[in-house]
Design goal:
mainly beta, 53% strand, elongated, signal, Outer membrane protein beta-barrel domain-containing protein, Beta-barrel_OMP_2
Amino acid sequence: MKYVSLTVLFCTVLVLASAQEKKQPDSPRKSRGTAIDTVIMEDVNTGEKRKVRIIIPGKDEGVITIEKSEKTYEYAPENEPRKKESHTEVTVDNPRKSRPIYGITFSRIDLGLVKLIDNGSFTLSDDNRDFRYRPGKTVNFGFDVLQAGYRFNDNFRIFLSGGFDWTYIRLRENIDFLENTTPLTWEHSDIDYSKNRLTSTYLRLPLTFELRSKSYSGLGRLRFAFGPEGGFLLKGTQRFKSEELGKQKFKDDYNFTQFRYGAFARFGVGSFGIYGKYYFNDLFENSPNQAGLQNFTFGVMLGF
């Protein structure tokens, strides 16, 4: 450092080194054989004075370290009060204030109830009376496994995620849906099914706009998320259980809509929350008698 007086520095180092060799009693300035002292040095060009901390390690512990203070001092002649003391503040921006987000995840785990809406009503029309279902056992389950997006700041982010979504419709009637038929066709069976469940499996693709509050101690963040959601049909399944035939399982698309679209909203605290989803297009396609039969889901969720 060109502004340091070499003479003062050299003398100071000799004094401290000598004190270290004499093994004086430990003081608050010594730690593990290391001597620490602070001196005032003057810039020979500008006359500016700064505090400099000198660290002398113990024997065989390393090299001498000199640390410059960020403070600047101005002194009056001897026996007069100091005129000025100032310091420089350093502000460090958070490099992660805004950043892309992407990768594998296991979040937004949904478990909710499903309500069928028939042309705006929760009451099924005559054409769909055979779709009467058990409300407590007609459920939705899903989760996300991938996500990619951008966090603009600590309170707002946008991301597209991908996952899987299942809708389980537990039917009351003993009806058997026929495979490879269009429009959707079913028959009434003479067998009394103890379980008759129609299932659709979708690849879901929600685009999420998420607002987050600051983090509260012991509570976490308040979160509100909403956006559109699309989904591609992966498969349809019907499962039966009866005393006569035991368990049976059949796979077909059962005229489920190949691509469904809708909207969702989520609200929660920390990792827990509630959600609701509504799909704008019909539950089945190419089936005129089921036109206007739609899917509404609401429930609880884990993991934002």
